[in-house]
Design brief:
The structure holds 2 protein chains of 2 kinds. By secondary structure, chain A is α/β, with parallel strands linked by helices. Chain A has one domain: Vaccinia Virus protein VP39 (Rossmann fold). Helices cover 26% and strands 31% of the residues of chain A. Chain A contains 6 helices and 11 strands. A 7-stranded mixed beta sheet of chain A has the order 7-6-5-8-9-11-10, with helices on both faces. Chain B is mainly α. Helices cover 65% and strands 6% of the residues of chain B. Chain B contains 22 helices and 5 strands. A 5-stranded mixed beta sheet of chain B has the order 3-2-1-4-5, with helices on both faces. In chain B, helix 7 crosses helix 9. Chain B is elongated, with a radius of gyration of 33 Å. The chains are: A alpha/beta, B mainly alpha. At the A-B interface, helix 3 and strand 7 of A face helix 6 and helix 17 of B.
Chain lengths: 223, 432
């Protein structure tokens, strides 16, 4: 792992990812804080965060690094956002988009108000032009939304905010797209849709056993 | 005065105008950024930028990066246009430097800080506003009501069981849980039960005699004062919770009148509230298709049907509607469909029009109901029904959609298009 903010820490005989805690002493969603080489890390539960699951399942390299600008779609209560915030560090920034006010309340209280690099945006990801306070192009778009048209939404957001050669991580919730189809077929279908729209597929990660019927597509934005 | 252009840029913290060479012409930092920003976006012109607009009188045309600003300028009588796409993108990508140029912040570091603060405040104000929405309170009310029902039933059953050790005969004599609880609470031991207590608990005439008689010759055991005290407290709980339940039910009744009168008219307050709760909000219900509303609450059956090709559910929560559960079995699906289609319309009227009751929906539903009741007076014989279902399933398969379809059907997109067109033709004129 090239980012210093991620460490693999052994807990009860099992290796788990952990991120360098940006806000010392603060546990965001009840995760364990561990000391490692004099620094405080937050354990990253792969059952709670799909990005952690993808790391555990062998994501080739982590596109989110120290100083990255990230557009995060589907921030929810901010579990994963908090770890992304750890990784990008004080010089990076996370634009966290979430339309549902109920979960956004927790996102603002537990994550955005405490972490200076998180900027909450309460908008529908279908309307990227309505995001306020977003500036510049981002290095990474992370998309984790349970919508039948999630891939199209992700593509539209990349067109508006992702820089050339930037990375998109798309969590494919196959059951949201089509319950009747074979999950693997859904992922392949979404991947080919991305290819048609100018993305180069780098890796497809199956998130079993951490999340059933979920895949993560790691792709690079070319045009 | 034409051909003296300037460009107005809406930034989160205020508005700024630049002339052709990029020099600052005028700027106005919002005193209350959140309020002004939201006002602008909602199509109004906040007072604090009126004088700013006045300063632009001499310019023509005025281009801007924001549609709502363009509208506000136009309202003030200026010739305003939208900026070309690439210019807007450029502003978006160098927003911190624009904030500095407009004089809203000292440097780019401060700009980022200010943007973040703005984002948090704006989001918080939206969260706050959303929490004040009345339909969310209805959802909480109906969920509380359903949970209270559960509590009353479990606690009530326990109380009956326990007091039954002392006076087993009472269980069969008093149906109503609240009446039972009142007798236990007021009388305590069975020998203290009096006609007056029974009457105040709603028992009448002969019933009073039977209970008093039962108490005298009961086969129940004795009860210690300690045990009795606890049973009495359970009884008090049942009474108190039932009281709360009534208050909640009344509240839902009133709240539905203001929030969703048309949905209430069609479904009754409690079923209407449950439908809104299931959809998540009135806004969401107003965007749902009737077919989804029809099966709300029967998700398990619906997804099973989609996966295995079994028969889809006829109704979910709608089954609680007296029209549907009291109808003959073979009419229920049709009635549920008719009701769902009207609920879809009613929800839209309630959410978008806010204009009180519209009785025409109920009338049209009644017309359709009479039609169903007449046309389908008798059930279709089972054999015939099976045949129809098979034919339907086969047709679905031919068109490549719906129930019974195998996995991984090739060439789906084209077929789906054809299917839609054919459906239109088959069903002809829409009835709602």
């Amino acid at each position: 792992m090239e980012s210093d903010a991620i460490r693999w820490i052994s807990v009860n005989g099992e290796k788990n990812a952990a991120t360098l805690n940006l806000v010392k002493g603060d546990s965001v969603y009840g995760e364990k804080l561990v000391k490692h080489e004099g620094e405080e890390y937050r354990l990253w539960d792969p059952f709670r965060s799909k990005l952690a699951a993808a790391l555990k399942k062998g994501m080739k390299n982590m596109p989110i690094k120290n100083g990255s600008k990230v557009l995060y779609l589907g921030a929810s209560t901010g579990t994963t956002v908090s770890h992304v915030s750890d990784i990008v560090g004080p010089s990076g920034i996370v634009f966290a988009v979430e339309p549902a006010t109920r979960v956004a309340r927790e996102l603002i209280e537990n994550v955005a108000s405490k972490r200076k690099n998180v900027l909450p945006i309460l908008e529908d990801a279908r309307k990227p032009q309505s995001y306020f306070a977003v500036f510049g192009k981002v290095d990474v778009v992370y998309c984790d939304i349970a919508q039948p048209d999630q891939t199209d939404i992700a593509i539209a957001n990349c067109a508006a905010y992702l820089k050339q050669g930037g990375v998109m991580l798309l969590v494919v919730k196959t059951r949201s797209i089509d319950v009747t189809m074979d999950p693997r077929a859904v992922v392949t279908q979404e991947a080919s849709k991305l290819e048609k729209n100018g993305f180069a597929i780098e890796q497809i990660i199956n998130l079993e056993p951490f999340d059933r019927d979920h895949g993560m597509i790691y792709c690079i934005f070319r045009s | 005065m034409a051909n003296n252009p300037c460009s107005v840029v809406l930034l989160e913290l205020g508005v700024a105008a630049f002339d052709q060479s990029g020099g600052l012409v005028a700027s106005k930092k919002f005193d209350n950024a959140i309020r002004s920003y939201r006002l602008l976006k909602s199509g109004a012109t906040p007072d604090e930028i009126r004088s700013f607009i006045e300063k632009l009188r001499s310019f023509d045309p005025v281009t801007t990066n924001d549609a709502s600003v363009a509208a506000a300028l136009r309202q003030a009588g200026l010739n305003s246009q939208s900026m070309p796409e690439d210019q807007q993108q450029w502003i978006q990508s160098s927003k911190p430097s624009f904030l500095v140029k407009a004089g809203f912040v000292n440097n780019e570091q401060d700009a980022m800080q200010a943007l973040r603060e703005f984002a948090i405040n704006l989001s918080s104000s939206r969260v706050k506003e959303a929490s004040e929405r009345l339909d969310l309170h209805i959802i909480q009310s109906i969920n509380a009501l359903d949970e209270l029902d559960k509590v009353i039933n479990t606690v009530g059953a326990r109380m009956r069981e326990w007091y039954g050790l002392h006076f087993p005969e009472l269980d069969n004599l008093v149906q109503s849980l609240v009446a039972y609880a009142e007798i236990v609470s007021r009388a305590g031991l069975r020998e203290n039960i009096t006609a007056e207590i029974l009457q105040s608990a709603g028992m009448q005439g002969k019933k009073v005699e039977i209970i008093l008689d039962g108490a005298r010759r009961s086969k129940g055991g004795d009860m210690t004062p300690e045990n009795l005290a606890i049973v009495k407290r359970l009884a008090d709980q049942v009474i108190a919770q039932s009281d709360l339940r009534r208050v909640l039910a009344d509240h839902i009744e009133v709240a539905m009148d203001t929030v969703a009168p048309n949905v209430k008219e069609l479904l009754t307050a409690s079923v209407g509230a449950r439908i809104i709760a299931k959809a998540g909000s009135l806004a969401r219900l107003a965007t749902l298709p009737a077919s989804t509303i029809q099966v709300l609450g029967a998700e398990k059956a619906l997804f099973r049907a989609l996966k295995t090709g079994a028969r889809p559910p006829k109704h979910g929560i709608l089954f609680q509607h007296p029209l549907i559960h009291s109808a003959p079995k073979w009419q229920r699906g049709k009635i549920a469909r008719a009701v769902a289609s009207k609920v879809a319309i009613a929800a839209r009227i309630d959410y978008y029009r806010h204009a009180g009751k519209d009785s025409s929906i109920q009338d049209r539903l009644n017309t359709r109901l009479t039609e169903i009741r007449e046309k389908y007076k008798e059930p279709i014989p089972e054999k015939e029904r099976e045949r129809k279902y098979r034919e339907h399933a086969q047709r679905q398969q031919e068109y490549g959609g719906g129930g019974g379809r195998g996995r991984g059907d090739g060439d789906r997109d084209k077929r789906d298009v054809r299917k839609k067109k054919d459906r239109r033709k088959r069903f002809g004129k829409r009835r709602y």
